[in-house]
Amino acid sequence: MTPIKFEISSQSGEARAGVLTTRRGVIETPVFMPVGTAGTVKGVRFEELEEDLDARIILGNTYHLWLRPGIDVIKNAGGLHRFISWDRALLTDSGGFQVWSLGALRKISEEGTEFRSHVDGSLRFLSPEVSMEVQAALGSDIVMVFDECAPGEASHEDTERSMNLTARWAQRSKTAFDRLQSEGADTGRRETEDLSGRQALFGIVQGAGHLDLRRTSLEQTVNIGFDGYAIGGLSVGEEKSLMFEVIEDIAPRMPKHAPRYLMGVGTPEDLVEAVARGVDMFDCVLPTRNGRTGQAFTSRGKLNIKNAKWINDQRPLDESCRCTVCRRHSRAYLRHLYIAGEMLASILLTHHNLAFFLDTMRGLRQSIRSGDFPKFRREFTERLGANGE
Ligand SMILES: [Zn+2]
Questions:
Q1: Any idea what DSSP says for residue 31?
Q2: Do 324 and 317 meet the contact criterion of CB atoms below 8 Å apart?
Q3: Is residue 226 a contact partner of residue 260, using CB atoms and an 8 Å limit?
Q4: C-alpha to C-alpha distance for 330 and 349, rounded to whole angstroms
Q5: Which of 93, 186, 227, 318 is labelled catalytic?
Q6: Which residues in 210-224 are b (16+ Cβ under 10 Å) and which e?
């Protein structure tokens, strides 16, 4: 038995609508996964994630949870699901990207990455084996391999070296993962009728903006064999056109019957365009992070709530949004809250932004199923140019 099942129900060009069955529930794809870095989707209560927003899967960050509160605290609580009281699916990243983004503070060797903790300055060491151990202790339903990310503008030579290291780390991740599963280290184990109850492990394709290396990395990753496949190392400073070139080339070559996950991307238009190229899963901090800085994503483009032009605007953030914020509050009120430094401003903007991202995915799924995806894509893109008006 496998840890997850993935079935594609409809297709429109490369765009796919499907169902991902995990040991903690069924997830319709394409799906957007809100990011819960430190065991919380910042500013959002779990009741709202479940009831109002109906998020079926959220992310946890291995790096952050490992450093604080630490694995012992989470193990003692019975795993991350129990610790945060979330019974739906969880995906954890490997910590590789966070360590990478520390830049000068890290030292990479064949064995792994040495870095200084941003919490207390202590010297720490993260490797494929440590990452798998931490993710088993967290008990997430989907585990990511430990990879190395090359910068967007990396040369062919540097990218190749990094990609080959990623392939060796992927194999070590798989070996450590299998051992941990057989030792019963996974705190999130759950028996279901037709799934193995184990964690699922996804591989990551690297190779920066070099298509030949991306293809090699894909081959290396598929040869090891994973439950799902991700495209990593995009949206890290490269041109957007290059990002789409990579997605367009790689996504359709990824195994058809496994979920395809584009890591850390992106804006609403990025999601639609990546779905059109065959991607099934997404995560991004944009809806939550930008919510805290006063930016709302709407069906008529981005809107900055600080702007004086909303001072007496009685309209909701988005007239076509049915979220609880848009049904209740005006732009004028939200602007007032933001300017006054009230914490409710961040909470309400974050809520709306997540609702918009999740609704966009719902719309995408419906349009793929009904055969209207090309029309949805065209109209969605046209409306985004309206600057919130
Ligand atoms: Zn709304």
A1: E
A2: no
A3: no
A4: 11
A5: 93
A6: beebbebbbebbbee
72 is catalytic: no
Label residue 72 left, alpha or beta by phi (over 0 means left) and psi (-120 to 50 means alpha). Answer: alpha
280 carries an active-site annotation: no
List the catalytic residue out of 147, 227, 283, 318.
283
- The answer, yes or no, to whether residue 358 has pLDDT greater than 70, is yes
Q: What is the pLDDT of residue 152?
A: 80
Give residue 42 CA to ligand 1 midpoint distance, Å: 17
Residues 6+ apart with CB under 8 A from 222: 203, 229, 254, 255
Q: What are phi and psi of 384, to 5 degrees?
A: -65, -15
Q: Rounded CA gap, 173 and 210, in Å?
A: 24
Q: Does the pLDDT of residue 217 top 80, yes or no?
A: yes
- How far is it, in rounded angstroms, from Cα 163 to Cα 150? 8
HSE at residue 4, side-chain half, CA atoms within 13 A, is 29
Q: What's the pLDDT score for residue 169?
A: 98
